Amino acid sequence: MVIVKLENVGLRYGVGPEILRDVSLTLEEGSFHFLTGPSGAGKSSLLKLMYLANRPTRGLISLFGSDIATTDRTKLPALRREVGVVFQEFRLLDHLSTFDNVALPMRVANVHEKDIKKHVTELLAWVGLKDHMGARPTTLSGGQQQRVALARAVITRPRLLLADEPTGNVDDKLAVRLLHLLEELNKLGTTIVMATHNEGLVRQFGHPRICIDGGRVEQMGPLRGPRRGNVRMEGKIS
Amino acid sequence: MTFLSFNHHKDLPLDKDPGTRFLPWLIAFMVYLAALAVIATSIMQSISARWEMGVSDTLTVQIPPQKGMQQDQKQIEASLEILRAHPAVVLAAPVGKARVLELLEPWLGDAASLSDMPLPHLIDVTVRQDVPMDGQALIEQLNKVAPGATLDDHRVWLDRLIQMSRTLEWGAYLVLGLIATVSIGTVFFVTKTGLAIHHDVIEVLHLIGAQDSYIARQFAEHALYMGFRGGLLGLAVAGPTFGGFAYLYHQVDRALLPQIDITALQWVAVLSLPFLSALMGYLTARSAVLNSLKKMI
Ligand SMILES: Nc1ncnc2c1ncn2[C@@H]1O[C@H](COP(=O)(O)OP(=O)(O)O)[C@@H](O)[C@H]1O
Ligand SMILES: [Mg+2]
After folding, report:
1. Which residue owns the Cα nearest ligand 1 atom 6?
2. Which part of chain A has CATH 3.40.50.300?
3. Burial bucket for residue A85 (CB in 10 Å: 0-12, 13-18, 19+)
4. A193: which strand partners?
5. Could you tell me if A149 and A86 are in contact, meaning their C-beta atoms sit under 8 angstroms apart?
6. Chain B, nearest residue to A96 by Cα
7. Which residues make beta-bridge pairs with A211?
8. Which residue from A37, A208, B67, B116 puts its CA 20 to 30 A from B148's CA?
9. CA neighbor of A61 nearest in space, from A53, A75, A76, A50
10. Strand partners, B58
11. pLDDT of A20-29, one tens digit each?
């Protein structure tokens, strides 16, 4: 089953240049892709199209088989609930506890508090944050915030998980740990797209790539083998 | 006021918005004014009802006696002609001398001894309530044919008072309308400000699949709560104000001012003000939020 399909998609912000040009790509259910490209290439922009934060300037996008251009606006929240997002810089709500942040997608879906408590507690244990349920995001470390963001993205068991540079501001050890969590989810059936700068991770985990450069998008096979020399693209947030 | 806190989760920290601090006070003031306006209306209604009861549909024209019987008769005829031509006049009939004597007897004694005295001539006039009558103009007209003629102008004077109290009543309604408009406008503005303050949080809620109504409900319930709190506060201040007015009113001579009856309906109107302000807050905030969320995809 095709989870995401883009056909000849173009995107520009206002009257600026076209950030994405003639993008066509297909994501099969259960796949795991790295989304790579230099800073400012349009990785976040492409993900935003997929999680319905923006509409393309032209072209067709379909999610789970629904053409989003013709989908009624009132039906979009239901589609969004099938998509988990780890936002760049996480976008956790600072006035809510870890527990409430993770519970949010269930609350907006009107899940019973009893079920919410059960699922959130379980998930926070899985990501190793059982002892921080009452903590505010601002009091957590970068790695902990990253896991809260991941937990919030997957609490409703979405079919598609989009992660926008989730390892951007944590060290390699934590980045690898997060990748292992994502692989577990992927094995359970979640389709994953993860934007990253970290070539080391791309090589180590060997998933197929979606590469953006100069507004063009190309689906490519895994990058394998050791790094060339000592060059490593650091996860700089853009 | 925990009894008003909802079971729902509040993902938006609206309690800390600047609007949350001043809005209940503004609503309180508006409800206070509205309560006064409602009571003022009922006072005006009581007064005009009382005055209307005093209005009869008859008046009396008095023509002073002249030198001779014949001249007097001419003046009476001419006056009758003018009166009968007036659109408000249904009937105009001279009062017989016997009846005049009878009317004067309590003051002047035996009718027989009065029969030679020059007595004023009276004309009974029956008027329609629904046609306005300019008493002043009528007197001027009558004075042309019968100098010194007077109109028992009780009705004219009452008409003016009733008209004035009706105007004041409409004024009170106008004030109520203004109060509602100002309140709605302020809630709308506060809600729009809240939307701007919490733009990021709202966007996150939106992107994780919140329906517009989920977000709108939080603003609406918050505004409902503030509207109710402000309404109660306004009533709490209005109570002693009414008490003070009532006390002053009773200090004035009872005969001068009518008894004021505040009807059950008016009490209900006053007591429902906090509920109305809560409902106003709810609906205004809700529609403001729904309207601006429509612009998000
Ligand atoms: N909301 C926006 N309005 C205008 N320009 C934008 C907006 N978002 C991104 N851009 C521009 O689009 C380009 C791609 O940005 P982005 O998708 O964030 O790239 P990446 O995530 O790969 O670093 C950049 O040049 C950026 O300045
Ligand atoms: Mg980016």
Report:
1. A13
2. 2-82+158-233
3. buried
4. A33, A162
5. yes
6. B11
7. A36, A218
8. B116
9. A50
10. B126
11. 999 999 999 9
Tell me how crowded residue A223 is: count the other CB atoms within 10 A of its CB: 18
Best residue in B11, B205, B207, B208 for a mutation probing chain A (most A CBs within 10 Å): B208
The torsion angles phi and psi of A83, rounded to 5 degrees, stand at: -115, 120
B289 and B186 assigned to the same domain: yes
> Which ranges of chain B would DSSP assign to H, the alpha helix?
18-54, 69-85, 97-108, 111-114, 135-145, 154-197, 199-207, 212-251, 264-271, 273-293
User: Which has the minimum average pLDDT: B89-103, B116-130, B152-166?
Assistant: B152-166
How many whole angstroms separate alpha carbon B12 and alpha carbon B2?
18
Strands (E), chain A: 2-12, 18-28, 32-36, 58-63, 66-67, 83-86, 160-164, 191-195, 209-213, 216-220
CA distance A20 to A8: 10
Q: Structure tokens of B50? A: 């009382």
Query: Which residues contact residue A44 at a Cβ distance below 8 angstroms, ignoring those fewer than 6 apart?
Result: A88, A164, A195
**Which ipTM score applies to this complex?**
0.91
pTM exceeds 0.80 for this model: no
pLDDT in tens, B67-81: 777 888 888 888 999
- Give strand pairing partners of A163: A86, A194
Q: How many residues belong to chain A?
A: 238
Taking an 8 Å cut-off on Cβ atoms, the answer to whether A51 and B214 are in contact is no
Inform me whether the C-beta atom of residue A37 falls under 8 Å from chain B C-beta atoms. no
Q: Which of A48, A52, A104 to mutate to test the interface with B (most CBs of B within 10 A)?
A: A104
Same domain, B103 and B123: yes
| In a shared domain, residues B69 and B121 | yes
Q: What residues make up the domain containing B117?
A: 65-148
Q: Domain spanning A2-82+158-233 has what CATH number?
A: 3.40.50.300
Q: Do A87 and B204 touch (CB under 8 A)?
A: yes
| Main-chain phi, psi angles of A34, to 5 degrees | -95, 140
